[in-house]
Amino acid sequence: QVQLQESGGGSVQSGGSLRLSCAASRSYYCIGWFRQAPGKERDGVASIVNYGSTEYADSVKGRFTISRDNARNTVYLQMNSLRPEDTAMYYCAAFSATYWPCYYRSSRFQEWGRGTQVTVSS
Q: Is the pLDDT of residue 49 over 90?
């Protein structure tokens, strides 16, 4: 059973916007967004705890916004002012333990979606 399902990826031109969604099968304490470009390591992008506190990587601050709808068990990543370097496969991941800090650099993310591709052309 797929616990996390991403959607909303696509192809846009530089400066454009996309909104990614991560639909979860249940409630999680912490959900994060990650991305991996071909030939590169996976990087954390943003994270959000169930009460709404957020963290962002420096590379996306001011351009991306993470939010969550707890009633729908869904987390969103609004991506504005997209750049070609944002091109990657985007994944959401989650964990439930409340004693771990919710931070996109954490190694505690245990459940992962299958990803959605974002391509930004110049």
A: yes
Q: Is the pLDDT of residue 1 over 80?
A: no
What band does 120 get if pLDDT is binned at 50, 70 and 90?
Answer: very high
- Do β-strands 10-13 and 30-36 pair in parallel, antiparallel, or remain unpaired? unpaired
Spatial separation of the C-alpha atoms in residues 116 and 63, rounded to whole Å: 19
Question: Which residues lie closer than 8 Å to 115 by C-beta, 6 or more apart?
Answer: 6, 89, 90, 91
CB 31 within 8 A of CB 76: no
Give percent helix, percent strand, percent coil of the chain, each to the nearest 5: 0, 50, 50
Residues 56, 64 contacting (CB under 8 angstroms): yes
- Give the residue carrying structure tokens 């990614």: 20
